[in-house]
Design goal:
The protein has a ten-stranded antiparallel beta barrel with strand order 1-2-3-4-5-6-7-8-9-10. It has one helix and ten strands, in the order αββββββββββ. It has a single domain (11-147), classed as Lipocalin. β6 and β7 (100-105) form a beta hairpin. It has one helix spanning 11-18; strands at 20-30, 40-52, 58-65, 71-77, 81-84, 87-94, 100-105, 111-120, 123-131, 137-147. 5% of the residues lie in helices and 57% in strands.
């Protein structure tokens, strides 16, 4: 189990609680799909999240290794700016209920909003919605992450 306070009281505590090895199940929905079979998919995987040291103008940093092995660095800057792999990518907000919201804008006009919250220190939930330039929903996903914990010797 994480040694971070629960529920997280601020963004730095939230980011600290994210660090660990997670078993992940993601269900994705393609809302613009015309077919009956290709509108939904689910995948399981291992997700590894490491905390990085906060830089001068940041609340913290997370280095995320996805199930396929790709690594992404998210820097949560003071004032709510979010940088991904060194490039400004959007905004973050820590809510009074202990959840965090990420809002990302892509060059093609798509906007992605992800809400992340913990129901227990070792159970994290994530929901994501992607919309086009007009605000039409294109994709959605829901993810359940369960922290891997070691058994006592």
């Amino acid at each position: 189990m994480s040694d971070q306070p629960f529920p997280p009281a601020n963004a730095a505590a939230f980011l600290g609680l994210c660090a660990g090895e997670w078993m992940s199940l993601r269900s994705s929905f393609e809302l613009s799909s015309g077919g009956d079979d290709d509108w939904h998919s689910s995948e399981r995987g291992e997700l590894v999240v490491r905390s990085g040291e906060p830089a001068d103008a940041s609340v913290g940093e997370l280095v995320v290794t996805a199930p396929g092995g790709a690594t992404t660095c998210l820097r949560f800057q003071n004032g709510g700016a979010l940088a991904i792999d060194g490039a400004l990518a959007g905004q973050w907000r820590f809510w009074p209920d202990g959840s965090m919201e990420l809002n990302l804008s892509r060059p093609d006009g798509m906007t992605v909003q992800e809400r992340i919250w913990f129901t227990r220190a070792n159970l994290r939930l994530r929901s994501t919605t992607a919309t086009d330039q007009e605000g039409t929903p294109l994709q959605g996903s829901f993810c359940t992450d369960i922290r891997r914990v070691s058994k006592a010797a």
